[in-house]
Amino acid sequence: ENECTVYTESCDKDCNAECENDCDCGNKCEGLNYYYGGSCNSDTCQCAYNVENCDDNNLCTIDECTTNGCQHTQKDCDDDISCTVDTCDTDTGECIHTPDDDLCDDQNPCTEDTCNPQQGCVHDAAAMNGEVCDDGNPCTEYDTCNNGVCQGTEKDCDDDNYCTQDSCDSQTGECIHDPEPMNGQVCDDNNLCTIN
Predict the structure, then answer these.
(1) Taking a C-beta distance cutoff of 8 angstroms, is the pair 64, 73 a contact?
(2) Most buried residue, 12, 74, 113, 127, by most Cβ within 10 Å?
(3) C-alpha span between 128 and 110 (Å, rounded)
(4) What is the 3-state secondary structure (H, E, C) of 12-80?
């Protein structure tokens, strides 16, 4: 069934008629003006449309008229730099790329993490050399950064007793002086009147 209302008796395209029926008045675009819901006027043989301007007055969208209606696409401000926050200035339409150092955190206390808006994240190890850190080992002390690595000095658990085996508890960092493993081992009590 033809849903078009036909006015063939009064509309003659040879006489500058725009339409013979409603189907001749399909959706169309003229610039950013969207013409839709067209119908053929039987008296004038011209199409009558509803009109919508596709300009949304938002400088941060790209406005387009299609036969399916107005489309507003957000302006792409992605600069492909992972540590910048990319936005569009609604007053000017200009893209803004704001560096955010927090987006460059590499979880390494021995690097200085910054965002270079042209290059991306920069992890500077030299800047942290000599800074106090924690290497996570309770059996080291005086931990400092050295070229991006946190390093400490092994804890000295020597109790100057030949008859104990000295070590550091890796869980607590406490020094352990165990006499049992040394039982029966030769030692020197520094007494010339005893036999070692």
Answers:
(1) yes
(2) 113
(3) 5
(4) CHHHCCCCCEHHHCCCEEECCEEEEEEEECCCCCCEEEEEEECCCCCCCEEEEEECCEEEEEECCCCCC
| C-alpha distance across the termini of the chain, in Å | 120
Helix (H, G, I), strand (E, B) or coil at 128: helix
For the stretch 101-139, pLDDT in tens is: 999 999 999 999 999 999 999 999 999 999 999 999 999
CA distance 65 to 49: 15
Task: Tell me if 101 sits within 8 A of 116, measured CB to CB.
Answer: no
Q: pLDDT tens, 85-111?
A: 999 999 999 999 999 999 999 999 999
Q: In angstroms, rounded to a whole number, what is the distance separating the alpha carbons of residues 128 and 109?
A: 8
3-state secondary structure of 153: strand
